[in-house]
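EI: anyone free to look at a 341-residue chain?
SC: sure, send it
EI:
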Amino acid sequence: MPGDTSRRESEREDWWRPRAEFLAEYISSKAMSNSDVILLQEWWFSPQFEQILDYHTGRKFQRIAERRPGHDREDGMAVLIKRDGELEFVDSQPLLTDTNRIAQLVNCRHKDDGRPVAIANVHLPFPSSPDSIINERMQACQVQKVVRALSRQGQIQMEPQLQVLGGDFNSNSRGLAARSVEAQHGFVNCASAAAEQALSHTGGQVNLGITHKQHDGLLVSVDHIFARMIEPPTFSTKKQKSENVLRGYGYLDSGGTRVVDCVRGDLELECPSHFLLSDHRPVTATLKWPSRDKQERILPLYRDFCNAPLDPLEPPSYIGGTNMTAVLSRVIGKPYPQLRP
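SC: here you go
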């Protein structure tokens, strides 16, 4: 019936509560709990929903959430920081990307030596216009606001900062939003870098396969993680040709910070809606981030990289480091606005 709001999932506890329990258990499971950071989009600010998630995940993760603007908004973004992981939470703020849309900017520091980390959690708009150019430009415009905010933040740091950008782009890696993040701002697409390492050369952007089932049933690849190291103005900004080549293999700096891998989770998308854990599959990127005292220069070993490439996975100068896994997962799905059949 038109106007029958009883079909809204959030108004039927027998619909949303079982899925919330399964979601919470999945996040706290071994598959997800090894991650230092988990990014969640479409977070529902229902006290009952949050109580369920916190009950299952609160001992492992610290939750930081930001609500979308508007007095009647019940959804937003959330980031989970592993309590016994590598990172310590510093602060969080929403960034308005459109009239009623936000990104979430979270600052952390490494527990051992205080190195700064900035994490951006994004959810770009669905391509609802019949004009694909309008859709792509709208998404690119919003992600540009996020990247510019990250760049400003990096410029006020007194030391290099690791920056991770992840979320639901509602477009694939060849879309304008994803391509602009790489081409204009020096971010590395973690999926493409991991594929480049595994296959030696893939010839461009790479998608991880299906990560999302849209409300219209279309299966798409729209979930991405990007990373970069940004240096303050006091550091040299001159880049060697070899460094640009190595970026394609996931190297974020000349000290050994790099993308180790990027994988897609295997959540089931083709099932009845009442069994659907999420309409997105999680994407996990692992970054190797050596501490200051263990970094060594990589670039001198690659003087002739373009003419006689060495194996980028085994650079002789690389020494250990710490792992930081950034997980992008819109596993919360749509508990607030979703309609059930």
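EI: Helices lie at 13-28, 30-33, 47-57, 132-155, 176-185, 190-199, 241-247.
SC: 👍
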